[in-house]
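Continuing the series of single-chain predictions for the mutant panel. This is the parent chain; the variants come on the following pages.
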Amino acid sequence: MLWQLKKLSTNEPLSPAQKLPKNWGPIFGLENIKDRLSDLSWLGNNFSDQGWFEVEGGEASPVVENAEDKVWEQAKILLRESDWAMLPDVPMTVAQKEAWISYRASLRSIRNQPGFPSVVSWPNKPE
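Parent structure:
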């Protein structure tokens, strides 16, 4: 089963079709997270016009053929896995939040590293 993030007002796709992360429920503390994905307004104003919808066909992610794309796809996966840390109501200290912000900035700039894509220094995930 594949899911796609869409803009509710226009039905415009905001992401490629993909499998939902296995840990979505625990991230949000919800048992049946799939029941609440079609309208993400409960996450706050930044998500008020977005929702996840089941889609048929397609592949979960694009076929990646070169090393640059493979490394960047891995960075995007790590960014998606850390999206929860940017939610405004996640209980953490300012220092913890700054560590997550720095981690995510390092992931976004991974392509700017000397030696990319054959030599990549992955940032450490904050605790």
